[in-house]
Design a protein that fits this description.
Helix content is 28%, strand content 46%. The chain is of the alpha+beta class. It contains 5 helices and 19 strands. Keywords: Membrane, Transmembrane, Transmembrane helix.
């Protein structure tokens, strides 16, 4: 009974071991396949600096006294400008720079170019230039004398022999700066423009301001290890690949060995005897022995030794519920009656 209990416990332990190793193997294979379905690492773009710079442009318009403007001589931005009442314009401008990083210094230059465009000709001239410090966070002014410009246009038309039907007066600011920070220097450019367009067939002069602000964003790419969630845990892909591979290498041979061993333990003692000594055992349905001396052997291994020494086969006979093994040597019969508890496994 004690031996039976040991056999039951042994089979239970093997079953538990197979179940545990199978679970580990399946989980490891799943993790390995899943870890190779995602990248080992990902690249993320991170903002390192953001710089905003602008040229704040405003203007006031000088006009002739009229009932249109309620006898005012100055009108503000956004109000309609009638060409016949337009005397001039005072443009105010201020350059600004802001950033989300520490700025150690700003260097650069600027220049202002006036361009007069007509359908027949165009002229450009630099009307101002200097160091960026002179307009950085400082209010500056530029006056446009419309009557003087129209006189210039008429003179050019007369010399060329044409009559312009429209005119564009353009002031372009060319700003080129270098912003020094702790880590690096950023070179930025800005080209704001204020444009006055006058079509002789229309009474109103239109004003447009473009390109007077820009935002520069500097960034860099950083490599981030990829993590996967497996069985409630966040695991790095590299770690998952390594340990799942190691667990597969360990669990698969162990599982194979235990399965083979469990199959062997499921063999009955008689099956093991027949398998081990199949070359010297012959199976008989019946055997008749008369006038022979019988010697009972209590250990099967002793019977094997006798068979080897006598060079006689072992006869196996099933007698009801018993199994008898015999070595017949002349008039002596060496007999072993099978009992499971007497066979060493």
């Amino acid at each position: 009974m004690f031996i039976d209990i040991l056999k039951i416990d042994r089979r239970l332990l093997m079953f538990i071991a197979i179940a545990v190793l199978s679970t580990i193997l399946i989980a490891s294979l799943t993790l390995l396949v899943y870890s190779y379905s995602v990248p080992l690492e990902t690249t993320k773009t991170v903002k390192t600096a953001e710089i905003y710079h602008s040229l704040d442009i405003g203007y006031r318009v000088y006009v002739k006294n009229s009932i249109v403007y309620n006898n005012r001589s100055i009108i503000m931005m956004g109000e309609p400008i009638y060409a016949k009442l337009f005397n001039g314009m005072n443009i105010s401008y201020r350059y600004r720079v802001s950033a989300d990083i520490s700025i150690r210094g700003i260097e650069g230059v600027y220049r202002i170019v006036r361009i007069i465009n007509t359908p027949n000709w165009n002229r450009s001239i630099v009307i101002d230039q200097g160091d960026i410090d002179s307009i950085l966070d400082k209010e500056n002014y530029l006056y446009i004398d419309f009557q003087e410009i129209m006189s210039y246009v008429n003179a050019m038309d007369k010399e060329i022999g044409v009559s312009s039907k429209s005119i564009d007066i353009i002031y372009t600011y060319y700003i080129d700066i270098a912003i020094k920070t702790i880590d690096k220097t950023y070179r930025l450019e800005l080209t704001p423009t204020i444009k006055l367009s006058y079509d002789y067939t229309k009474p109103i002069i239109t004003v447009s301001i473009t390109g007077n602000e820009d935002r520069y964003i500097d960034s860099r790419n950083i490599v981030i290890p990829t993590y996967i969630r497996f069985m409630g845990m966040d695991i790095g892909v590299g770690v998952a690949r390594f340990y799942s591979f190691i667990l597969i290498l360990i669990s698969s041979p162990l599982l194979t060995a235990i399965i083979i061993l469990s199959r062997r333990t499921r063999e009955s003692p008689i099956d093991r005897i027949l398998k081990k000594y199949s070359d010297i055992i012959i199976t008989c349905s019946r055997i008749s022995i008369e006038n022979n001396n019988r010697v009972l052997i209590d250990n099967f291994e002793e019977l094997v030794k006798i068979s080897t020494l006598r060079k006689k086969p072992i006869a196996m006979v099933r007698d009801g519920g018993n199994i008898r093994f015999m070595v017949i040597d002349e008039d002596i019969v060496y007999e072993y009656i099978f009992e499971p508890s007497s066979i060493s496994s």
